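Recall that a protein's primary structure is simply its ordered list of amino acids. Everything else, from secondary elements to tertiary packing, is in principle encoded there. The following example makes that idea concrete.
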Amino acid sequence: MRNLLTLCWQFIRAFALIYLCLFLGNAISALLPITIPGSIIGMLILFALLSSQILPPKWVKPGCHLLIRYMALLFVPIGVGVMSYYDQLRSQFGPLVVSCAVSTLIVMLVVAYSSHYVHRERPIVGKDVPGPEDKP
């Protein structure tokens, strides 16, 4: 019985903290003069709390694992809602495909060049680097 109460407390605490960050994000979003979704601001707040170690990760871990496990199920209402705009999607299919393809290509190029830049071979400071004339 005690394990069950502990498990329930962990889930309640995790969801309360996640929803608290969401509600704070929505409140901040309502005050801002620009349109940024409250859920995005809430995720940034949660990220800041976790990365600064103000909020221990083990406090939100049970709720996060549960939400991630059922993430596909949570997207079903969104997919059904998109299907109500089927006529508009069909009439704009060409521009949608082109914009998706172009943006995907741009993201792939940026990631490739960034990865190449980050993982390039760098000379070690203080070590003599052999030049092309030193090769046998």
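The mean pLDDT is 89. The helical segments are 2-31, 38-51, 57-69, 71-74, 76-83, 86-91, 93-118.
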